[in-house]
Write a structure and sequence with these properties.
- The complex is a heterotrimer of chains A (321), B (326) and C (503).
- With 321 residues, chain A is mainly alpha-helical.
- Chain A has a domain of 195 residues.
- A two-stranded antiparallel sheet of chain A has the order 1-3.
- In chain A, helix 4 packs parallel to helix 6.
- By secondary structure, chain B is mainly α.
- In chain B, strands 1-2 form a two-stranded antiparallel ribbon.
- In chain B, a hairpin with a 3-residue loop joins strand 1 and strand 2.
- Chain B is globular, with a radius of gyration of 19 Å.
- With 503 residues, chain C is of the alpha/beta class.
- Chain C folds into two domains: 237 residues, Rossmann fold, CATH 3.40.50.300; 171 residues, Rossmann fold.
- Chain C has a six-stranded mixed beta sheet, sandwiched between helices. In chain C, strands 16-19-20-13-21-22 form a six-stranded mixed beta sheet, sandwiched between helices.
- The chains are: A mainly alpha (321), B mainly alpha (326), C alpha/beta (503).
- At the B-C interface, helix 1, helix 9 and helix 10 of B face strand 17 and strand 18 of C.
Chain lengths: 321, 326, 503
């Protein structure tokens, strides 16, 4: 009798909404099973450290994606922010933090201006800016490694609860929480969804669409900057590899976590966080098993492919209704 | 048989006539000429024969990718993956070539791998109707990851001498082979695009896919083939580039080159919306960008500063495209 | 308990678009607590008039007076500020967000305790209030995408109420609604009336106008030809006003048509719209396909030609005595198809005229194994067509964007004529075309039929159908409800049939 109620479309909805978390759960169980080191506290401390930089950057990226755009310059903005941290190494650590954030916001604002006001295509524009920003940072750092201020660096290794919960992870988690709150509880967040859902309707009813899109980029810039800040704090130094390739990982994580590339859908917690965790856990899990590290980018690429395929099916399915 | 030759000769004349009357070529050709004049007057060693041949050899390396991108953009898509597919194909082919000393086999494998990636793109975009930007973004990551995995991040040395001589040598000790190859390929592709039915299909599909469908054009097939061609071009690049640098590595083509290729096609008249663009225009656009990079080199401009300028040029070019299509 | 009495007057409104006079000196007045029905055929000017009221177009002359004060509506925002809400046929909504958010999107209630925060509970509460006022039981927490079209419409109405609109315009609101949803809509509209709103209701369906509206206004050819109280007028009189008392259109259709069937469609089913279409198209005839907007005529064509997937159905082509069942994509090869909206899928807007003309027949111009295109003969063909159809263009290489609508349409016709197809399918062939070109295209259609083409003509302009068709099929409720032959083809008849009352 109960089976009669259970129809195909309900199953489909269920898979779309929860399938991913089930996958994540099984993966954790699987790795825990096949490797002794996986479910240890120290391993999870490792995981939390490895993921916090991506978590911070992906949080902001989620917002941009919800409005229907994309930001590929976040890795380079992270590097620039890290560079600013290095430049302010002689000052109070708070100055470093604030300047990094300010710089991130400024670059984000520039991005937002080009995309929202000059109506340039966000993908290609931020792709080009990714190169330009990185070049700028490289000019400043001269392409070499630099140390950041000791006080700040020491914060990078602070861990709570007897060496298990890193401060930097806490910071990124709080940032994610903040962004989730912005998305779901503020008027701005509601506008973001609206713009991503139906930009024409949003314009028609009087939502300041351009402002919303630009602000999303500013926030993305700030998050990217915080990511760079955390990375430099953890490593104690900045190198030419800072933030490299982070944008693509972030896009993968955000899409896998359920945010649609078409805009209007998605969330930071638990979605994007789960996406980041999936990628990091796979990398980590394969590592504890001693699998060749070169499999990982491959797996990540395949995962994002599947994720966007599912996303496009979901989108077509929604349109048909 | 004689008919064929006569028709072909006649068509060639028509082709030249068509090129001359194409006014989207005005921009790329003029800025290239102006830049060339300025540079030769102000930058020491620029108009040196050796430097010019150098420039043309560079053209011969990126040129194939640019040609492939032109096809894809005309039909309304984009291919962000071609530059990493170069590495993926190169490492596979090179490994086999070193192991078996069989140049033909190695080159064929390079082409096969690149066409394989092209097929993934083509099927996903043309038949599964996924978004080109993102599909090729993930193929890009996949190809890169594949290259790293395949080689365990090691570069491949010891490519057969014949291979290196054929593809990176100089004809008559003078003209670099890559330059000759790209010119030949460019002319053939330009001819196909402007004079054949297939070329017309691509332009119309890119201009308005729905109208093209109503006009009974197989738009899915048209789009699919452009990704195959782009893949093929990546394979050719793999061959030429491996020979020139005498090694196959996991990042044969650096990220910034993707910007160069896209900028070249847009300067050459292509639009992100599709329906316009030309191989000749792209080649001039690429020439301009290559000269720019060359001048940076000659002037000792920091590579980092060059990155800033190049990135900004791309952004400016996209802004130009938006302005143009308003 | 003050009763808010408002009065809206649109006075001497004139508006023209390039080549077309859309509105000439139209004046209407509407009062609170009244539902005004706005009727007229397609192109009569109803949408234009309302688009002016909605701030989407601006009138060339005339003024709009609200409560004795003149108002200027330069944008949809201005209209909203003046309390005007326009419920379009294409609903504006945000799919992945909740009903409550959609209703209050422009006026999200603030959280009293935390700055920048919206109060979710308040939104839901307010939304419930508005929905109750409309007598609707839709759950404010549901996501918009879960709602049916009818329910989405109610939410848009709720938004109008929530933002304090006093004037609500409905544009063909019932074309995609089920009977039950229609009843629900009427209940809501009556509720709005009891809240003293000014309601303007555009519809083709005269029985709805009779059932729902208090007053009516009839527009024809951009002019006001009748208005008054619904109760004082018979439906037939209103029909005559819509169509024009000055007699029925003279027919230019040929008298002789053969009975040789060229195309047969059997039992075509697609989605909810097409429930089993059967039709036959004969050589040398113009077969008119008539029905109200939303009845599925364009969908029928697109499905039959393979541009949209077909669920089931059979297509038979008769050629030289042979009957072959073909797939929709194959049918497309044998047909010329002038689409409904040329801007969307009829033109290659940035290409020259000649490329547009030859695009349907490219294989004809390509020779040799390399399939080289002979552009010279393409251009020559184009020049011939330009001459024959008197297409007004500076040259064959002018970008087609620069041509007027009528000439663009003629160029599209040439595209199919170039192919010399046996079957020609025309969907709104004279839409957005000036009077002169309309006439020319009409004559062209008749001539083509005389020369033996089998023509399927879809048009929302009843005069066009009447004038040009030898036979007319009426599409209603997803099937061919009626076939009208020669003598029975006239406006009054067709209107009634489409509305559901055979005579």
């Amino acid at each position: 009798m109960q089976f009669a109620d259970f129809n195909l479309s309900q199953l489909r909805n269920f898979i779309f909404s929860y399938g991913f978390y089930i996958l994540l759960f099984f993966l954790v169980v699987l790795f825990g099973f096949i490797s002794n080191d996986f479910l240890t506290v120290s391993n999870w401390t490792q995981i939390s450290i490895a993921s916090c930089f991506l978590l911070a950057a992906s949080a902001g990226l989620t917002l941009v994606l919800v409005t229907g755009n994309i930001d590929l310059s976040i890795g380079s903005i992270a590097y620039i922010a890290a560079t600013v941290v290095y430049l302010t190494a002689d000052y109070h650590p708070l100055i470093s933090v604030l300047s990094a954030i300010l710089v991130g916001a400024s670059f984000g604002l520039f991005n937002g201006f080009l995309v929202a006001y000059l109506k340039m295509n966000s993908l290609l524009t931020t792709l080009g800016l990714m190169i330009a920003y990185r070049g700028l940072a490289l000019v400043i750092t001269g392409g070499s490694m630099h140390y950041i201020g000791k006080p700040l660096a020491s914060f990078g290794s602070v861990k709570f609860f007897s060496n298990s919960l890193p401060l930097i992870f806490l910071v990124s988690f709080l940032l994610m929480a903040l962004l989730q709150v912005i998305l779901k509880k503020t008027r701005f967040g509601t506008y973001c969804y609206a713009v991503g859902n139906n930009e024409i309707a949003a314009t028609r009813i009087g939502i300041p669409v351009r402002r919303v899109k630009a602000l999303a980029f500013v926030i993305s810039g700030v998050c990217a900057a915080i990511s760079g800040l955390l990375l430099s704090m953890y490593l104690g130094e900045i190198t030419t590899f800072t933030g490299r390739g982070m944008e693509f990982q972030a896009v993968a994580a955000v899409v896998i976590g359920g945010t649609s590339l078409f805009g209007g859908r998605g969330n930071v917690l638990p979605g994007t966080m789960a996406g980041v965790l999936l990628l990091i856990i796979i990398n980590n899990g394969l590592g504890t098993r001693g699998v060749s590290p070169y499999i990982y980018p491959f797996v990540a690429g395949a995962l994002i492919f599947i994720a966007i395929y599912l996303d496009s099916i979901k989108n077509r399915y929604m349109i048909k209704r | 048989m004689i008919d064929n030759i006569v028709t072909n000769k006649f068509s060639f004349a028509k082709y030249i006539k068509k090129l001359i009357s194409d006014n989207t070529l005005i921009l790329p050709i003029s800025i290239t000429i102006i830049a060339a004049v300025i540079f030769s007057l102000t930058v020491p060693n620029f108009s040196n024969i050796r430097n010019i041949l150098n420039i043309f050899e560079q053209l011969g390396i990126l040129g194939f990718l640019a040609v492939g991108m032109t096809f894809v953009m005309i039909a309304g898509g984009i291919d962000l993956s071609s530059y990493t597919v170069v590495s993926a194909s190169a490492v596979v082919g090179a490994t086999i070539m070193v192991a078996t000393e069989n140049v033909f086999l190695g080159c064929s494998l390079m082409l096969m791998v690149s066409v394989f990636f092209g097929t993934i793109n083509g099927v996903a975009i043309a038949y599964l109707r996924m978004i080109p930007f993102i599909v090729t973004l993930s193929t890009m990551v996949l190809a890169q990851g594949f290259a790293i995995w395949f080689t365990k991040a090691q570069s491949i040395y010891g490519l057969p001498d014949i291979f290196i001589e054929i593809f990176s040598g100089r004809l008559f000790n003078f003209i670099p082979v890559p330059a000759i190859l790209i010119i030949v390929v460019a002319i053939i592709c330009s001819f196909v695009l402007s004079m054949t039915l297939y070329g017309r299909w691509l332009y119309l599909t890119g201009e308005n896919e729905k109208t093209a469908e109503v006009s009974n054009i197989n738009t899915q097939f048209a789009k699919f083939t452009t990704y195959i061609i782009s893949g093929l071009m990546a394979g050719i690049t793999a061959i030429v580039l491996s020979a020139v640098v005498e090694t196959s590595t996991t990042s044969l083509v650096r990220d910034e080159r993707l910007m160069d290729v896209i900028a070249a096609t847009v300067i050459g008249g292509a639009s992100l919306k599709g329906g316009s663009g030309s191989v000749i225009g792209t080649m001039f656009g690429l020439l301009f960008i290559t000269m720019l990079g060359n001048v940076f080199n000659l002037l000792g401009v920091s590579p980092f500063l060059a990155m800033i300028i190049k990135g900004s040029v791309l952004v400016a070019v996209i802004g130009l495209d938006v302005f143009r299509t308003r | 308990m003050t009763i808010n009495q408002q009065k809206l007057a649109m006075l001497n409104i004139t508006k023209s678009f390039p080549g077309v006079d859309a509105l000439a000196n139209v004046s209407i007045t509407a009062n609170s607590g009244q539902i005004m029905g706005l009727v007229g055929v397609n192109g009569a000017g109803k949408s234009t008039l309302m688009n002016i009221l909605g701030g989407i177009y601006s009138n060339d002359s005339g003024k709009i007076v609200l409560n004795n004060k003149q108002i200027h509506l330069k944008s949809p925002n201005d209209a909203a500020k003046n309390g005007i809400a326009f419920i379009h046929q294409d609903l504006l909504y945000f799919a992945s967000q909740t009903v409550a958010e959609n209703i209050y999107m422009t006026d999200l209630p603030k959280n009293n305790y935390i700055p920048f925060f919206t109060s979710k509970s308040k939104v839901i509460e307010n939304a419930k209030q508005v929905l109750d006022m409309l007598g609707s039981d839709i759950n404010p927490n549901s996501l918009m995408e879960e709602l049916s079209t009818g329910e989405k419409q109610i939410i848009e109405i709720a938004r109008a109420l929530a933002t304090g609109s006093d004037i609500v315009i409905f544009d063909e609101p019932t074309s995609s609604l089920s009977i039950k949803e229609k009843e629900r809509l009427f209940k809501v509209v009556r509720k709005l009336k009891s809240e003293n709103k000014i309601i303007i209701y555009i519809s083709h369906f005269l029985n709805e106008i009779q059932e729902l509206c208090d007053t009516y206004v009839v527009l024809r050819n951009g002019r006001l030809v009748g208005n008054g109280n619904v109760a004082d007028e018979t439906k037939n009189n209103i029909i005559r006003m819509i169509i024009g008392r000055d007699l029925l259109t003279s027919k230019s259709a040929t008298k002789e048509t053969s009975n040789e069937t060229v195309l047969e469609i059997k039992n075509l089913i697609q989605g909810n719209l097409l429930q089993g279409i059967n039709l036959k198209l004969n050589k040398g005839e113009v077969l008119g396909l008539w029905g109200l907007m939303g009845s599925g005529r364009t969908e029928l064509i697109r499905t039959a030609l393979g541009l949209d997937p077909m669920e089931s159905g059979e297509i038979n082509l008769y050629q030289k005595g042979d009957t072959n069942q073909v797939s929709p994509k194959q049918l497309l090869k044998h047909c010329g198809y002038v689409t409904e909206s040329r801007r969307i899928d009829g033109l290659f807007i940035s290409e020259p005229v000649w490329k547009n003309i030859t695009s349907g027949n490219l294989s004809h111009y390509s020779k040799g194994r390399l399939n080289l295109i002979d552009s010279k003969s393409e251009m020559q063909s184009a020049q011939n067509h330009i001459k024959n159809l008197k297409i007004k263009t500076p040259s064959h290489s002018t970008t087609i964007e620069n041509l007027s609508g009528g000439n663009q349409q003629k160029a599209i016709f040439s595209r199919w004529l170039d192919k010399r197809p046996k079957i020609l399918i025309l969907d709104e062939p004279t839409r957005g075309v000036d009077v002169g070109a309309k006439q020319e295209i009409g004559n062209l259609i008749t001539k083509l039929a005389q020369e033996g083409a089998a023509i399927l003509l879809i048009s929302s302009e009843i005069e066009e159908i009447v004038s040009l068709s030898n036979r007319v099929l009426v599409l209603r409720d997803g099937v061919i409800a009626h076939e009208a032959l020669e003598e029975n083809i006239n406006e009054v008849n067709l209107m009634s049939i489409a509305l559901g009352k055979e005579q």
